[in-house]
């Protein structure tokens, strides 16, 4: 609860009419991927289906296509924050992401400012990621953002503010202007 800052023991009692159904959700990056096993000889068990909620109807879906990996399952994520200053500047991060075969992410501040699309948002109200490498450029490190990327294996932070909270969780920190650091890093990759 509260982005992993609070733990609670919960006792579940049967509901009205002895209903014993439980619903629980797990953040997709909380556990390592399970090993693929051969289940061709598994028993098939039929279960009763849950009645559909009759007050809702399917309207449709909208899926964005990209040549980059999916943000939620990418091995490398390059994210930008308010420090990127404009949507036009995201091309700097996209160039690095393309060279690394990475997904592009963003802080809520960057999304709210209209710098990039909502589906790039990483954080408590966005996607939860746990890549092998997370590069945070121009992201201060608000707790809501950290809760969405804190399980990354290696975190690299690039920020001009030496007191930015992102440096407290970063494995590697670079106190430099991202407009100098990212192009140089892209060139050297």
UniProtKB/TrEMBL annotation:
The keyword Flavoprotein applies. GO terms for molecular function: electron transfer activity; flavin adenine dinucleotide binding. The keyword Kinase does not apply. Gene3D superfamilies: TPP-binding domain. InterPro entries: DHS-like_NAD/FAD-binding_dom, ETF_a/FixB, ETF_asu_C, ETF_asu_C_CS. GO terms for biological process: fatty acid beta-oxidation using acyl-CoA dehydrogenase. It comes from the Eukaryota. Keywords: Electron transport, FAD, Flavoprotein, Transport. Pfam families: ETF_alpha. GO terms for cellular component: mitochondrion. PROSITE patterns: ETF_ALPHA. Residues 70-150 form the Electron transfer flavoprotein alpha subunit C-terminal domain. Belongs to the ETF alpha-subunit/FixB family. This is ETF_alpha-domain-containing protein. It comes from Fragilariopsis cylindrus CCMP1102.
């Amino acid at each position: 609860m509260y982005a992993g800052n609070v733990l609670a023991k919960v006792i579940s009692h049967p509901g009205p009419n002895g209903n014993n159904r439980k619903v629980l959700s797990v953040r997709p990056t909380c556990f390592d991927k399970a090993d693929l096993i051969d289940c061709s000889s598994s028993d098939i068990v039929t279960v009763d289906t849950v009645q559909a909620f009759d007050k809702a109807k399917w309207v449709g879906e909208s899926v964005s296509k990209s040549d980059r990996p999916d943000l939620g399952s990418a091995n490398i994520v390059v994210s930008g924050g308010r420090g990127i200053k404009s949507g036009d500047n995201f091309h700097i991060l996209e160039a690095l992401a393309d060279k690394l075969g990475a997904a592009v992410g963003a802080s809520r501040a960057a999304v709210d400012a209209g710098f990039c699309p909502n589906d790039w948002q990483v954080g408590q109200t966005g996607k939860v990621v746990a890549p092998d490498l997370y590069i945070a450029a121009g992201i201060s490190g608000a707790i809501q953002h950290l809760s969405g990327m804190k399980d990354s294996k290696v975190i690299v932070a690039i920020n001009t503010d030496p007191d930015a909270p992102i440096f407290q969780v970063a494995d590697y920190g670079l106190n430099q202007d991202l407009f100098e650091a990212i192009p140089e890093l892209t060139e050297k990759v």
